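Supplementary Methods. Inverse-folding protocol.

Structures were first reduced to a discrete structure-token string of length 486. This string, shown here, constituted the complete conditioning input.
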């Protein structure tokens, strides 16, 4: 029986969908204001893998993954570049789809955008107001956290710890610092939609509650995303949706671990990230080949655990996948006049199938599956030496393809696979940048501090990213100052 680790209950549970043989799954997608980094790619491929395996088991899966296409970061980027905000969203929607295709992640069944669901969002806000879970302040509407006693049940945070890690908007008009915006009154020059409270736009959290309920119903099976979304985003989603509908909302909450660089979470705010585009474009291999190498590397770690990214790790993954495609070549050349190993192959494939199912049923244990693929490669290589018929060789090849399809591995035609070591240039490019003098670093940090004082976070983030490209990391102190190191 399939068991899944449920963040809500903090334990593995047997998976029992609400409807027989039907799974409804919602996953929080990206805010389209920049290129995706490898952390976004990991989340996308994890839930792609989960969707694939559920279908492999015979479930009829409806998979919804949203796009946040109206947000402060989008508006800041548009203002910075002097272009319409829609130009930013269109550019990075296209970029996301390009990167996912190169990574081998297939589109979700439904990919709703926040701006396409304004009516649903307004309807949910009206319900929350009517039930006493929200209040108006001028043209803004806030969710009142104190009206939902179970707040904190997903993140397991105590009331005194809830402020830590939350994106708290400073507003003296709020009844409690933890209250969060459901609807934001528009500012001059910002896009706005009409509402009963005046022109404005939705808050971040409400859009996912409204879209998931709209497309999957008030009660569905799986809600997923990265661990960074557990609090406050998913905590707020639960509070909103349950308060509005009186229903359970999602039964199973699945969260993937971070991608790290030297044991530190990869994030844009820290400047220690690689975009998928950088990784693909720094490789000398074909897109689809690089995509399989990245998938193999990331799936070699259980989805709930952090994975430490390195050029060496990705090179080793490429070499491992090369070995399997090399086996495919040998299987295609099998011309043994007799087949003394055919009978043994049946047992080898049966054993592999059993281990595959057992591992995937155990909370999608892909590291065991990856190891078993390499064990199977070694066993089949040995059988080739003993003699496999063309028919048996074809059966072995199809086993790799069929089981690999769940992980989107081994799907490239053998004739198109390029046996070539990946040549990464990201680190080399950074190493060849001119070394910044200490005085120049201090000047840029002061510019960044001034930008932060003006609340110009787009400029502050851009300066941090520029310094990171020169190998400079910044640590912000509580008193507002910053220190740096190479």
């Amino acid at each position: 029986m399939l068991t899944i680790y449920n963040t809500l209950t903090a334990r593995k549970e047997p998976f029992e969908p609400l409807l027989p043989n039907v799974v409804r799954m919602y996953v929080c997608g990206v805010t389209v204001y920049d290129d995706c980094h490898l952390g976004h790619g990991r989340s996308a491929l994890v839930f792609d893998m989960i969707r694939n395996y559920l279908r492999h088991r015979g479930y009829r899966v409806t998979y919804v993954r949203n796009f946040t296409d109206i947000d402060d970061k989008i508006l800041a980027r548009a203002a910075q570049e002097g272009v319409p905000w829609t130009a930013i969203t269109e550019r990075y929607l296209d970029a996301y789809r390009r990167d996912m295709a190169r990574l081998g992640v297939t589109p979700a069944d439904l990919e709703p955008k926040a701006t396409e669901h304004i009516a649903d969002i307004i309807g949910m806000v009206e319900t929350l107001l009517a039930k006493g879970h929200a209040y108006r302040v001028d043209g803004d509407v806030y969710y009142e956290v104190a009206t939902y006693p179970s707040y904190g049940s997903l993140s397991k945070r105590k009331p005194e710890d809830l402020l830590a890690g939350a994106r708290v908007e400073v507003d003296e008009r709020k009844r409690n610092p933890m209250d969060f915006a459901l609807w934001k009154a528009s500012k001059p020059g910002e896009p706005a939609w009409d509402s009963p409270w005046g022109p404005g736009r939705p808050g971040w959290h409400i859009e996912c509650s409204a879209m998931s309920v709209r497309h999957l119903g008030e009660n569905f099976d799986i809600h997923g995303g990265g661990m960074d979304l557990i609090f406050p985003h998913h905590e707020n989603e639960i509070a909103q949706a349950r308060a509005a509908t009186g229903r359970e909302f999602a039964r199973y909450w699945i969260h993937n671990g971070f991608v790290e660089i030297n044991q530190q979470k990869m994030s844009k705010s820290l400047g220690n990230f690689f975009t998928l585009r950088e990784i693909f474009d720094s490789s000398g291999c074909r897109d689809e080949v690089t995509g399989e190498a990245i998938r193999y590397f990331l799936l070699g770690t259980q989805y709930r655990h952090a994975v430490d990214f390195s050029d060496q790790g990705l090179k080793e993954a490429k070499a491992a996948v090369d070995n399997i495609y090399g086996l495919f070549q040998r299987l295609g050349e099998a011309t043994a006049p007799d087949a003394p190993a055919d009978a043994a192959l049946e047992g080898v494939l049966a054993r592999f199938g059993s281990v595959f199912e057992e591992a995937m049923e155990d909370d999608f244990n892909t590291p065991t599956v990856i190891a078993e693929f390499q064990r199977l490669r070694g066993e089949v290589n040995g059988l080739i030496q003993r003699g496999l018929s063309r028919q048996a060789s074809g059966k072995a090849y199809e086993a790799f393809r069929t089981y690999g399809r769940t992980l989107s591995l081994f799907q490239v035609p053998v004739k198109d696979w390029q046996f070539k070591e990946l040549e990464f240039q990201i680190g080399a490019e950074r190493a060849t940048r001119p070394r910044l003098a200490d005085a120049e670093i201090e000047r840029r940090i002061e510019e960044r501090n001034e930008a932060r004082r003006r609340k110009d976070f787009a400029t502050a983030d851009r300066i941090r990213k520029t310094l990171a490209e020169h190998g400079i990391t910044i640590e912000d102190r509580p008193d507002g100052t910053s220190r740096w190191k190479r």
